[in-house]
Amino acid sequence: MEKVKILGQSTLFKNIEEEELNALMQKVHYQVKAYTTGEVVVFSGDECNELQIVLEGSVRGEMMDLAGRVLKMEDITVPRPLAVAFLFGQNNRYPVTVTANDEVKLLVFPRESVLKMMQLNVNFLTNFMNDVSNRAQFISGKLKFLSFQSLKGKLAHYLLEQDQQRQGKIVLTKTQEQLADFFGVARPSLGRVIRDMHNEGVISATGKNIEIRDRVALQSYLGK
């Protein structure tokens, strides 16, 4: 089964052999759902009672702030799950609206099937717990990022996160348009802040290449 090969690449099914995974899936209920480009998969606040894993295409998670601005949280691609940390608990609702970026197929397991797989396979149980912990850490970091009020603060935090080895040189993997979506701002606003920080001598920006020239000044933006 093609879907079994794709699932085998997911962190949820790490260390589970293809034959073992195939046998596991035969013991639980699941279905495949398809979505077209721009179609909403789930709305923020919808109950999360299924484990959904991307089989084809990609989706994006977005939330809206009090001012009505849409903030893109992340793109979710093959073979990652959606909202794995919200499948259980008292307030198990999707924290973001999830929309298809292109033609998408999702493999959907009801909560009961997830519980059964946990009982049948200790590797799946361990992987699921690790994924929940990783998502909690990601959300914690995202909340810290959102706490910075200014765009300079957000950009400074992002650059420092990209340079955890303190080498001072960064090659951006996102375009300015993608970064602007990530920060929830217009692209010209982001371009202006990058130019300002470049002109101030805090960074040197050439295309996707960023050099941190004044780390102390960059860190000072975090409190602004």
Helix content: 25-40%
Order of helices and strands: HHEEEEEEEEHHHEHHEEH
What's the architecture of the largest domain in CATH terms? Sandwich
Strand sequence of the main sheet, in spatial order? 1-8-3-6
The tally of beta strands, per DSSP, is: 11
Alpha carbon gyration radius:
20 Å
How confident is the prediction overall: mean pLDDT? 90
What is the CATH C-level name of the largest domain? Mainly Beta
Intertermini distance:
53 Å
From the 3D structure, determine the CATH topology of the largest domain: Jelly Rolls
Number of domains: 2
Anisotropy-based shape: elongated
* Tally of helical segments: 8
Q: Considering the protein shown, what is the CATH homologous superfamily of the largest domain?
A: Jelly Rolls
Main sheet properties: 4 strands, antiparallel
Which percent band covers the strand fraction? 15-25%
How does the helix and strand content classify structurally?
alpha+beta
Low-confidence stretches: none
